Amino acid sequence: MKKIVVRAPINKENLAKLQTLFDEVIYMPWTDTGERFYEQEMIACLLKERPDALITELDVINETVLNEYSDLDFIGDCRASPENIDVSACDRHNIPVLCTPARNANAVAEMWISTVIAFERNLIDSVNWTKEKRWEAGTTPYHLWMGNEIYKSKIGFVGFGAVARNIAELLSGFDVEISFYDPFVEEMREYKKVELVELFSESDYVSVHLPVNEATERMIDRELLSLIKKESIFINSSRSAVVDNGALYELVKTKKIRGAILDVLDTEPPNAEDTQVVEIPNILLTPHIYGASRQVVDHQSEIIVQKIFDYTNQENLVDQAAGDLV
């Protein structure tokens, strides 16, 4: 094939593999500037470079873009799902879209463990207390900041895809009881498959791992949230739109549940309405960074390049290229 424009960060090893497949690889990742391409920038890039293929991560690809330039054999998107791409528009222009599911599953899983522990062991507040020089004679931080262990708890996953399974594996050393709800996953020997009512009413930690679609939007409603035990924690590191957040915030503020750990909001960055979340003391809020590890580039590089070789029926070149790099 002739030419590919690479707008996603790809590691050197996999760029070298692409160079065995394409005559020209134009590497211009969005990380060089920190900015994605919106419609007009994307159109300008495509018309200037006139590539046969594109790898992107954040850039907008929609009908407007493809009406201006659609001479693409395929688009590779370094996302678990192509939220930056209008897939229906690509279908109309006969352009396949290749994605990278599970590219950040391990990053999210490690962050899940770390934030749950940080919440339960009062890590942030105790560190700030120390930095503020409030550790003085007469204080007893051992008792003041005493927290809870995850050990022997019940953890329920709503959605049991790659991320949730990675978390479950990392939790194997905590001697926890794991259950899950997922109509697309069969019964498993290691973990208990349950219905939503049982999961919400029995779990010490309710963790949501759902994509946004017609079936899941606001699926976690007030009725389900009201089933959570008073001493339990709600965790959402997937998508805000799957939860009735107004009901969730109310439950946390009134201490109907012990707290929540959130990496996502309905509006990002938060608008005036969403700032209430920051003011709720028993919510730990991170700015949508669960999947933000430097190693994600290595994961997505391997996945997308392998998919491109598979798609072009040149799997043998992957092995050859890998051998040349040893």
User: How large is the count of helical segments?
Assistant: 13
Query: What is the chain-wise order of helices and strands?
Result: EHEHEHEHEHHHEHEEHEHEHEEHH
Overall mean pLDDT: 93
Number of strands: 12
Shape: elongated
What is the radius of gyration? 23 Å
Largest sheet: 7 strands, parallel
What percentage of residues falls in helices of 4 or more residues? Answer: 25-40%
Strand order of the largest sheet: 8-7-6-9-10-11-12
Distance between the termini: 25 Å
> How large is the share of residues in beta strands?
5-15%
Quick take:
With 326 residues, the chain is of the alpha/beta class. It has helices at 12-19, 39-49, 63-68, 87-92, 105-120, 123-131, 141-144, 162-170, 196-202, 222-225, 245-253, 296-311, 315-325, and strands at 3-6, 24-27, 53-56, 74-77, 97-99, 154-158, 177-181, 192-193, 205-208, 233-236, 259-262, 283-285.
What report would you give on this structure?
The chain has 326 residues and is α/β, with parallel strands linked by helices. 36% of the residues lie in helices and 14% in strands. The protein has 13 helices and twelve strands. A seven-stranded parallel β-sheet has the order 8-7-6-9-10-11-12, with helices on both faces. It starts with a strand and ends with a helix.
